[in-house]
Amino acid sequence: MSTSHISPALAVAIGLISFQVYAQAPGAPNPALPPAPPPMLAPASPGLAPTPVAQTPVAQGEVKRMLINPYGEVDGLRLVDGTIIKFPPHMAEALSAAVKPGQSVRVLGLAEARGVVKADAIINLATSQTLIEQPPSLANGRPLPPHLRAQNLQPQSVEGRVDAVMTGPRGEANGVILSNGSIIRFPPESLRLSVQQGAPFAASGLGTRNTYGTSLEAISMGTSLSALQPLYDAVR
Q1: What is the DSSP annotation of 124-187?
Q2: Which of 1.10.1740.10, 2.40.50.140, 3.40.50.720, 2.40.37.10 would CATH assign to domain 146-230?
Q3: Angstrom distance (rounded) from CA 5 to CA 14
Q4: Which of 18, 65, 181, 211 has the fewest Cβ atoms nearer than 10 Å?
Q5: Alpha-carbon distance 74 to 65, whole Å?
């Protein structure tokens, strides 16, 4: 993976952690995560303020599940301890190639909310492979606009019980993961149901079903498929 867009601070942090991974004896337990020091400021580009970069891992553990968005793209991980790791969907192919469920990872990034981390880098502790967030590349052409991408979505309906809540950058609930692994995304202001763990939850909408599971953008939600309520006014 190219490092041409990596800040010096992040590169140093990844180098130190990669050294710890290589130095760790086979079969030895992973060391406890140290307390995070104040963030280092990466050199700023002209006209821009310095950007905080995490120097130490903010999450570590075994991968339980790959998370996908309604388009079927892998855009994160869920660890066995429940931590949700976010990663940009344009790197879906690289992430699914670098990390598999059952493997342990160490994550550098910033905590957005309790149990939710926006990753800058993900280190596979089994292979020592490091995946670093990169900006989208135009080498293979521009991505399809949303209205064309949406043509690939299919009607989906799911129901089950809430296993985890997904949140936005300000901690607002914008999705849930059901106990069967299905992922439901919705606008934060549309939530009128309980998202407490174990609460019944159902939705229908447009999304994707693939080897990683089912993910959809909700059009209607309720406590069961027989009690769905529309989220949007009908088009007249």
Answers
A1: ETTT--EEE--PPP-TT-PPPPHHHHGGG-EEEEEEEEEEEEEE-TTS-EEEEEETTS-EEE--
A2: 2.40.50.140
A3: 14
A4: 211
A5: 10
